[in-house]
Amino acid sequence: MAKGKRFSRRDRIRLSIRKRIAGTSERPRLTVFRSNKAIYAQLIDDNEGKTLLAASVKDVESTGNKTDQSKEVGKKLAEKAAAAGISEVVFDRNGYLYHGRVKSLADGAREGGLRF
Question: Which keywords has UniProt assigned to this entry (predicted)?
Answer without folding.
Answer: Ribonucleoprotein, Ribosomal protein, RNA-binding, rRNA-binding
